[in-house]
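Need the bound structure for zinc ion, inputs here:
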Amino acid sequence: MKKKNLFKITSLLLLMMVLLISNTTVFAEKKAEKKNDYPYPITDFSLDTKDNQVSIKLKTDKKVNLLLEYNKINGHKSQAEQIRQKNEDNFKIDFEIGDEPYLLDLTLDHQEFFFSTSMILEKDDNGKKIRNIISNTSDYVFEKKESSSSIGAMNETPDDATRLSDGETNEGYISPDESDVDWYKFYLSEDGYIDLQLYSIPSGVDYDLYLYDSSDTTDEIWAGMNSDNNRELLQERLLDYGTYYVKVKSFNGYDEDNSYIVQWELVKQWPTESTRISRGYSESNDHLGVDVGAVTAGDDGDNIYSIWDGTVTRAEWSSSYGYVVYITSSVDGDLIQSRYAHMLEDLDVTVNEKVQAGDKIGDMGNTGESDGVHLHFETRDCGSSCSNDNSEDPFDPMVYFPEYKQYLKSVSSAANFEEVHMYDKEEVVYTMDEIKKMTPEQRAILSIPVPKMTPEQKKLIGLPVQD
Ligand SMILES: [Zn+2]
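Answer from helper R.:
Posting the output first, comments after.
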């Protein structure tokens, strides 16, 4: 888990203002008396304190990602930590409060909505009870992500920023009776490479584009300030997960009749949360891909993501690759195939499905010819069309992830597993339909792992059901 110093005292004050000043429809302050007072899909949300222990519980009725940022405040310093939990519907976070106050910023992110709440926790004057000095757990911000247009939006400060969804085009206007800036924000749930652009800038005006991370909306991390074209463009910038702010600023006047368009898009992503690269690409060793261990070594289930937009061409069982997905993508004009191997049985994609960079395609596993939980991923240059055989030219996927090479270097000698016969010519293949119809006995003969059974499945074949 990375540590980031995300907040300063000033942004802490900003957050307090966000919570306390409810001047937009986006902000909702509610007293939750019944469970169903929470916005869908949240079904329960509570914060309990006992002695120095704080316990946050949150339930949803669909699986969502959670990002909890908590900051220990000590004088002018703040230490930030983040906790992420992926695709869960039941969150429980416990931690201890020391002598310094804690700022907690809890965020749930989903394709359809965004939920966040902030609180400052500190001990009372007697040093005994923990109190929440800016809010209670029923104060929160909840946004549906459908809001597509920012026309007329009051997005003139970072606090009022309009949320941008991945790939969505947003029209905006700058007019003289407003301030000369529009603010937007977006959230990345995983480190990733983004494109950010401002285009369709009306002729006769010059609008510039700025990108900020959430720690400081006065000092940009990138600025596009061309004066002689109608577009500002940031390409393939690697950003850490978190919230980002975007500002469109008028440099020389307004055009209140013609809109500009602002858009960001996740265009490339490392294929899993972990960066523990345990084995690199090597043609001499016949290892034509890169191995990445789990966040917690040995624990399967980490999300596997498509590294680019593309189309699934293979999603099935292979005796060597285990459960494997191939995706064909157009990358800088070349047709490239990416391969993701040794996954668990519950693949998230099927053949011919279109995916986007960062879409979950499966879970990290240890299937096929693999001796340890890891992702083996490959890239192959297809020429004019990609085939599923091994005739395509393999090359080192790290050329697309130069920033990640540091991880390969530091742990390459620490591989804790071996793969054998990756390119077994005797590769035996079964489709997911065929796999589903197999009995445990048939699977055993073929060395295909038998998944854990649900209580219903156990009941069906007369096995004892227990939790
Ligand atoms: Zn490998």
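Comments: Confidence is low (pLDDT under 50) at residues 1-36, 147-152, 411-424. The longest strand covers residues 53-74.
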